[in-house]
Specification:
Layout lengths: L1 E11 L4 E9 L2 E6 L5 E6 L4 E4 L1 E6 L15 H10 L2 E8 L7 H12 L6 E2 L2 E3 L5 H13 L4 E5 L9 H14 L2 E5 L3 H13 L6 H5 L3 H18 L3 E3 L5 H12 L4 E5 L2 H4 L2 H7 L15 H13 L4 E2 L36 H10 L6 H15 L17 E11 L18 E11 L2 E5 L2 E2 L18
Parallel strand pairs: 1-4, 1-5, 6-7, 7-8, 7-9, 9-10, 10-11, 11-12, 12-13, 13-14
Antiparallel strand pairs: 1-2, 2-3, 5-15, 15-16, 16-17, 17-18
Cofactor: Zn(2+)
InterPro entries: Amidohydro-rel, Hydantoinase/dihydroPyrase, Metal-dep_hydrolase_composite, Metal_Hydrolase, Metallo-dep_Hydrolases_sf
Keywords: Hydrolase, Metal-binding, Phosphoprotein
Length: 465
């Protein structure tokens, strides 16, 4: 007897769409077909889409954010919000304090997550303190233990590392089966433009978009891809916002560089002009890279449609707006440079792409599944355990109602921020039932799972490349 059967739904994977029932035993998919026999529980998914649970591989939860600044979401609220958005796995970043051993930082991060998650989690490592021991001992050992993904920055004084250390990171990861993500913006150019803007009295949130121009992202993207080419290493370029950076990815691929590209909802729906019109309330939309213009939005949609982008992530990085430990920090109104950087979005990532992409004919269901689940699992060592509907895979499944129509309002969301950048957006289609490793967590819109049902999932290193 099956523990659960999902019957009569339209099943989609990254490769196919078909009508089938799904039988689940002990948290895994045991059979796919028709007339599967009895089950302890059945769900009728007639008229609904049955999709793999989403994997958001770019979220920030309980991350150190500077003196007096607190991120809005901890693991409880962040994973709860993710679950309501159709996600069954999220991948936040472990950021060590400068000088702190990586192993200690990871132990502390595990303690924050343990017993508090509604989705499964797997961790990336932010590498901000490169040392010979890290490259020679620590990073290879951590990759082998399931921490297979490292993120490096080309911007922010307290995070950026040199080109030489990016090369060492790429080489070490390639040799041991890890994956390197890069935040691409030219810090020297940005600092120069910040100083000029402040001299001229241009300090409102809108000017955050002006001091991080497309050229600074394009140059850094070109440089990161050049370093990957020099080291013959694969690379992930995160949160791409414009046609010029997309062009660098395409050109590098044509030269044989193995590059994964990622974009996010803010680059499809927001523009820099939105911040101009909001005056100081524009702090709600301050993120990096910043939103661009309508032409950049169309370029990002083309990248989604034509396969340039492999990943669609939220870059969920929430701070409360009406909070002195968030966007209203004491120094925030002295200059845009002091506004906590990031916006919430994990719950709306998949509904936005479903409504604006699938239902408007820009992409089909398999492409949606690839962009929101399968490609994330493949890129970061969770496939085929996660990210697909297949016999033997974890029974992480989301049932979508394609006809549901609604207006986005933060009052209906489940994060711990106090606003959404997408207030008032009309969407169609939403996840109504979410199953995590065979357990129904959300039942027709109601939370029925428990905090702590989500668990840490180690990633599998890629074969050495």
């Amino acid at each position: 007897m099956f523990d659960l059967i999902i019957r009569n739904g339209t099943v989609a994977t990254a490769a196919d769409v078909f009508e089938a029932d799904i039988g689940i035993i002990d948290g895994r998919i045991a059979q796919i077909g028709r007339d599967l026999g009895p089950a302890r529980r059945e769900i009728d998914a007639a008229g609904k889409y049955v999709l793999p649970g989403g994997i958001d591989s770019h979220v920030h939860i309980s991350q150190p954010s500077g003196a007096g600044i607190t991120m809005a979401d901890d693991f409880e609220s962040g994973t709860r919000s993710a679950l309501f958005g159709g996600n069954t796995t999220v991948m936040p970043f472990c950021l060590p304090e400068k000088g702190a051993p990586l192993r200690e930082a990871l132990a502390d991060y595990h303690a924050l997550a343990e017993g508090n998650c509604y989705t499964d989690v797997s961790f990336h490592i932010i590498l901000n303190d490169p040392t010979p021991q890290l490259f020679g001992q620590d990073l290879p050992a951590l990759i082998a233990k399931g921490y297979t993904s490292v993120k490096v920055f080309m911007t922010y004084d307290d995070l950026k590392i040199s080109d030489g250390d990016i090369l060492r990171t790429l080489d070490t990861a390639r040799a041991h089966g890890g994956t390197v993500q890069v935040h691409c913006e030219n810090e020297d150019a940005i600092k120069y433009l910040i100083e000029r803007a402040e001299r001229e009295g241009n300090i409102t949130p809108f000017f955050h978009t002006q001091v991080r121009p497309i050229a600074a992202e394009r140059e850094a993207t070109h440089r990161a891809l050049t370093l990957a080419e020099v080291s013959e290493s694969p690379i992930v370029i995160v949160h791409v916002s414009n046609a010029e950076a997309i062009g660098e990815i395409s050109a590098s691929r044509a030269r044989g560089v193995k590059v994964i590209g990622e974009t996010c909802p803010q680059y499809l729906l927001l523009t820099a002009e939105d911040l101009r019109d909001m005056d100081w309330e524009g702090a709600k939309l301050v993120c990096s890279p910043p939103p661009r213009d309508k032409a950049s939005q169309e370029a990002c949609w083309r990248g989604i449609e034509n396969g340039t982008f492999d990943l669609f992530s939220s870059d969920h990085c929430p701070f409360r707006y009406n909070d002195v430990s968030g966007k209203q920090a004491p120094k925030a109104k002295t200059s845009f440079r002091h506004i906590p950087n990031g916006i919430p979005g994990v719950e709306l990532r998949m509904p936005i792409l479903f409504s604006e992409g699938v239902l408007k004919g820009r992409i089909d269901l398999p492409r949606f599944v690839a962009l929101t689940a399968t490609n994330h699992a493949r890129a970061f060592g969770l496939y085929p355990r996660k990210g697909t509907i297949a016999i033997g895979s974890d029974a992480d499944i989301t049932i979508w109602d394609p006809e549901a129509e609604y207006t986005v309002t933060h009052a209906d969301l489940h994060d711990n921020a106090d606003y959404t950048p997408y207030e008032g957006l009309r969407l169609k289609g939403r996840p109504e039932t979410v199953v995590l490793r065979g357990k129904v967590m959300i039942d027709r819109g109601a939370l029925v799972g428990d905090r702590g049902d989500g668990h840490y999932q180690p990633a599998t290193p890629h074969p050495a490349r």
